[in-house]
Amino acid sequence: MIITLKPHTEEEQKDQLMRWLSGRGLEVDVSEEDDHELLRLIGDTSVVDVSMVEMLNMVQNVRKISAPYKKANRLFHPKDTVVDVHGTKIGGGYFSVIAGPCSVESEEQIIGIAKRVKAAGATMLRGGAFKPRTSPYAFQGMKADGIELLVKAKKATGLPIVTEIMNENHLPLFEEVDVIQVGARNMQNFELLKALGKTRKPILLKRGLANTLKELLMSAEYIMAGGNENVILCERGIRTFEPYTRNTLDISAVPALHELTHLPVVVDPSHATGKASFVDSMASAAAACGADGIMIEVHNDPAHALSDGPQSLTPDQFDGVMEKIRRVRAAVGTEN
Amino acid sequence: MIITLKPHTEEEQKDQLMRWLSGRGLEVDVSEEDDHELLRLIGDTSVVDVSMVEMLNMVQNVRKISAPYKKANRLFHPKDTVVDVHGTKIGGGYFSVIAGPCSVESEEQIIGIAKRVKAAGATMLRGGAFKPRTSPYAFQGMKADGIELLVKAKKATGLPIVTEIMNENHLPLFEEVDVIQVGARNMQNFELLKALGKTRKPILLKRGLANTLKELLMSAEYIMAGGNENVILCERGIRTFEPYTRNTLDISAVPALHELTHLPVVVDPSHATGKASFVDSMASAAAACGADGIMIEVHNDPAHALSDGPQSLTPDQFDGVMEKIRRVRAAVGTEN
Amino acid sequence: MIITLKPHTEEEQKDQLMRWLSGRGLEVDVSEEDDHELLRLIGDTSVVDVSMVEMLNMVQNVRKISAPYKKANRLFHPKDTVVDVHGTKIGGGYFSVIAGPCSVESEEQIIGIAKRVKAAGATMLRGGAFKPRTSPYAFQGMKADGIELLVKAKKATGLPIVTEIMNENHLPLFEEVDVIQVGARNMQNFELLKALGKTRKPILLKRGLANTLKELLMSAEYIMAGGNENVILCERGIRTFEPYTRNTLDISAVPALHELTHLPVVVDPSHATGKASFVDSMASAAAACGADGIMIEVHNDPAHALSDGPQSLTPDQFDGVMEKIRRVRAAVGTEN
Amino acid sequence: MIITLKPHTEEEQKDQLMRWLSGRGLEVDVSEEDDHELLRLIGDTSVVDVSMVEMLNMVQNVRKISAPYKKANRLFHPKDTVVDVHGTKIGGGYFSVIAGPCSVESEEQIIGIAKRVKAAGATMLRGGAFKPRTSPYAFQGMKADGIELLVKAKKATGLPIVTEIMNENHLPLFEEVDVIQVGARNMQNFELLKALGKTRKPILLKRGLANTLKELLMSAEYIMAGGNENVILCERGIRTFEPYTRNTLDISAVPALHELTHLPVVVDPSHATGKASFVDSMASAAAACGADGIMIEVHNDPAHALSDGPQSLTPDQFDGVMEKIRRVRAAVGTEN
To answer: Is there a single domain that holds both residue C22 and residue C90?
Structure first.
């Protein structure tokens, strides 16, 4: 909610209103626009009786921000957020390519892939250590050992590492992880989001399979409300009636999120389509429409991957995708 | 996977096969059908080369159970599971009505509602203490205090209590809770499911907003694989393009789940529709099509409820719904 | 849009407003409520500048009816419409069971089924003559010959007949058809709807697979705007991500449509689920929640039906469903 | 279905099989691969008992083509179809930009826009004359007069014209129309598709809001089965639970359709998103991922357009989009 005061409102009156608002549990952020003062209310504004506030002499008007996210809202923070991962930037014109295998499987595998994707131009390494699998009987990841191997790959290549967390109790294991990923299935695991809000690590937050963009932003808000504003959003496909692709890449989520929020937006064409042969075209589309990065699964031997083989590129295929993305980004004029 | 052995297979041969299967990490459950022995394999059967097994002399045939859930599968357990909550039974012809407010708000409120719904015929009391809210700024529930008040209501009325868990670290607070609910947003919070699999409490598992029935069963399997077979499934509406109702009640989930699994199935018309005026007709529909129970939000003062007021019934309205459900159940001939 | 006039508005002023509204192409329906006159505007009200009208002295207030359907709107016509098909009534407490095969296949088949479903209590006979098939190579129906056979079955049993139209040019063939069905795929074939609006036959309008309830009502409005107000709405399943059933029966469409419109609402559990084994429970659910009728596929030999065999009941199964529905309807107290 | 014969099959045996297949109503297309003869069956192959055919001595194997579309299937026609619209080509590397207003409103409007979009590089002019509107009370288009004005604009600029048909009885009015559009709501109006199959005009077939890609291809097959193989497919957004955009652009439909069919694929970002501000980024994405064309709404005065103003670009904005698309197409290396 934004309360616009009339020009020349007396300080005393304003203070009275501010005290009343604080008393209702709201944080008030004061700014100026032309010769008006604007009071932006942060918190649960449903406690404010708008019609009463509007009747106050000093009040010009009250705008309800229908979007209940505040810290993630571009209305309040018009400038793009640039998330800085030890020097690797993403957002605000900085483009980042996160690549690596679905699951960490061995030291040789992860270091081998890390070197190849770095050579091709990737800026971060992804790899799953804790794997959320639909079946309790499926491979659940190498867990702590997987993280150790990622850290080795990071040391070998200098690439920051991105890996998924599934349980706040595992946080101590993530100390050397550079970006913590929240998977689609945990997008509304609010307890986990709150725990991550207390860290200062960049969080890669994936959109749930049936979540709206506003819900994605509310989940980002959970992290940001805790004090951690380093949130990267990720579109990874939504669930529709179309069976040919694993999910449906909602490509217009890119311009839509750029309109609604200042946070960087990454696209994951591997999970969105579930088909390696579609990754090249979907990554190009993402680059062309202004995404701040892409996240691609690359595996040295997709046919024998322990998870998600059918959607993984070989390192050679990844080289080709990187080439094309560079050309597309140059064409659309975003060249950081 | 079910391996049917030929009649008169020698014990020695069978043992050899059993050892080989165990060596692949599979549990084998032996049973008889006519004069054949059946080996039911539990675990990740993708390690078994079916064509090789089929070529063995002793093997009659191999049936792949395409459904990767085993313990929840009606194929393996044709008889309905009856979950017993301190004497209140659900499933296998026993019908249970779980009623109460969305959120516990005060001692007076929860005890007052508990008495009213008990008088009307409810068999369990529901009430939210930890509330998963889309917004971090919305009321998050009374937490531990809320559980304490539920326990008081249980003592006052004798009704078993059902309340939602959001974090495995809260488990110690749930000692006196009779049925632990997993909300739709946590249906695929696999870490939480695993933790609940280690308890022996009945679990009410709600279907996620965009999850298939098979995924719901896989999540039940996570709990059951841990050793806790007291799982109650709950259909509470799925997400579709239709905006008039909050979600779309997938009523055919009732016969579909009854076909696929032996677990009891409950319908929650309050969340499925988001409209109090539809609860009566949807509860009747659920009773008519064979649901094992319903879960209804009842609030003493819906207009001032701290959450989900628009979908809550008054106690008087609830009386009317109970009346009607009794008649419908008698009509369809399921009268426990 | 409803304009409420102030009490004691002068006739002359009112006439001036009425003329101005007529000049904008709007029909005005005048009624009274307490001591106010209400002007209900029918037509494209977007041409009216609401703020201007509100400023007129004689105007108390202007309510925009957000629903752009007028003739189908319960707000304007609070009383249930009862459609009368040569004495067989549907709506307003009259319940109708429409049964028969997906496709008419032979004289023996259709008359045999007609006799069986009539004996079981069906009130109308359905049968497809023109079949909308996804594939151009699939059986397209017996066409004109199929209609002839339906007419024979009608003569043999006295049951009114319901069959689908796909092309307005076929209308002359439908003279002896009692209820003309518009299939889901043609729900927004506006040219066909307009042509049907010029007839006076009852129309059974099926909801499209991905259409909202409001769009269904807008399509009903197309027919009604042409002067034909005998419209029966049919919920037959919508498209969602769930693959276990052919479609998802949106059962809450029944109370929702009853809230929005005065037209009768029928449920088709056969198409909604695509599984004969679910028809019994879904038909019971429909009867329990107040549907005005159901439409069920019955075939003498489902295994060899030329279309939709897997979802057809045998006549014996249909007997059982009818029995149950009668008991459910008695239980919920709607006994016409 | 493809039957592969063994090498050196005797002519007589083969003829016997061919006669048997013809007798079942199937067309047989014979070709060679290595030293095998292949019989491709066109028509309803469900009448063929595969296991019986496989047992014939002369038969090497039988491949069921699960896709029931034949003429649209890339398996049978590996080479891209290039549709030629009086010299303007689309498909197989030829890219086409179809631009113009949602509705034709006046001679001045349509000729003015036609000149502007041609100057910017558009290759065809679109404009609605018959408009499928959800409401019977909304502007339904200028109808025959609209087509006359399109023809004038074609004469003034040389641009081929594209406009929508809603009723086969209107076909005589479409004589000078170069590409006939079938709208999303009529994608499964099979009677209309059959009528268009008898013409030889290029058809632009839009995907229905809730139709799968295979259903889109089956609808194309309806047209092609009639003898008209000039079909252009159009992805224009599907219906999902996301409310921020009017529909959800299924961008992966582009590579998916290119895999499944040889027909050209066009993307319509205007209808897919419903927001003019997203057209630029979505058109770039479409060009980047290999679409054969785009279709964009351009209006001289979007704020006062009689339909779909919010999603229309001004001619100046369209100039910018064309610039960007040219650069993107050069970057991805498809430069016809």
So the answer is: no
Q: Is residue A78, in this structure, part of any structural domain at all?
A: no
Structure-block tokens of residue A180: 């913590």
CB contact under 8 A, B278 and C252: yes
Distance of CA A10 to the CA centre of its chain: 42
Residue A143: in which H helix or E strand, if any?
Answer: none
Number of domains in chain B: 2
What is the C-alpha to C-alpha distance for residues B232 and B237, in angstroms, rounded to an integer? 16
Write the CATH number for C326: 3.20.20.70
Instruction: Verify whether the Cβ–Cβ distance A290 to D282 is below 8 Å.
Output: no
Contact D91, D80 (CB under 8 A): yes
What does the pLDDT look like over D149-197, one tens digit per residue? 999 999 999 999 999 999 999 999 999 999 999 999 999 999 999 999 9
Same domain? D297 vs D254: yes
List pLDDT tens digits, range A68-96. Answer: 788 999 988 889 999 999 999 999 999 99
Name the residue with tokens 């290549």: A157
Co-location of A159 and A269 in the same domain: yes
| In a domain? residue C74 | no
The alpha carbon of residue C204 is apart from the nearest alpha carbon of chain D, in Å, by: 17
Q: Are D137 and C168 inside 8 Å of each other by CB?
A: no
Query: In terms of domains, do A30 and A178 share one?
Result: no
The amino acid at residue D149 is L
The answer to whether C188 contacts chain D (CB < 8 Å) is yes
Distance CA C270, CA C299 (A): 12
**Element spanning A70, H or E:** none
Which carries the bigger pLDDT value, residue B10 or residue D278? D278
Tell me the C-alpha distance between C269 and C294, whole Å: 8
Domain co-membership, B135 together with B207: yes
Place of tokens 């399997």: B221
Answer yes or no: do A207 and A323 share one domain. yes
At D35 the three-state DSSP class reads: coil
User: In the block, which residue shows the tokens 């993280």?
Assistant: A147
D12 lies in the same domain as D132: no
| DSSP symbols for C209-250 | TT--HHHHHHHHHHHHHTT---EEEEE--B--S--SSSSB-B
Distance from CA of C240 to the nearest CA of A (A): 5
What does the DSSP 8-state code read for residue D26?
-
DSSP A117-138: HHHHT-SEEE-BSS---SSTTS
SS (H, E, C) chain B: CEEEECCCCCHHHHHHHHHHHHHCCCEEEEEEECCEEEEEEECCHHHCCHHHHHHCCCEEEEECCCCCCCCCECCCCCCCCCEEECCEEEECCECEEEEECCECCCHHHHHHHHHHHHHHCCCEEECECCCCCCCCCCCCCCCHHHHHHHHHHHHHHCCCEEEECCCHHHHHHHCCCCEEEECHHHCCCHHHHHHHHCCCCCEEEECCCCCCHHHHHHHHHHHHHCCCCCEEEEECCECCCCCCCCCECECCHHHHHHHHECCCEEECHHHHHCCHHHHHHHHHHHHHCCCCEEEEEECCCHHHCCCCHHHCECHHHHHHHHHHHHHHHHHHCCCC
In a domain, A76, yes or no: no
Q: Are C244 and B332 within 8 A, CB to CB?
A: no
Q: If pLDDT is split at 50, 70 and 90, which confidence band does C317 have?
A: very high
D139 chain-C contacts, CB cut-off 8 A: 44
**Residues D208, D184: contact at Cβ < 8 Å?**
yes
Residue D120 in domain: yes
**CB-based contact (8 Å) between A331 and chain D?**
yes
Q: What ipTM, to 2 d.p.?
A: 0.83
> What value, to the nearest 5°, has the Cα angle with vertex A24 and ends A19 and A25?
100
How does pLDDT run across D297-327, given as a tens digit for each residue? 999 988 777 777 788 999 999 999 999 999 9
Domain of D243, in residue numbers: 83-332
Distance from the first to the final alpha carbon of chain A:
36
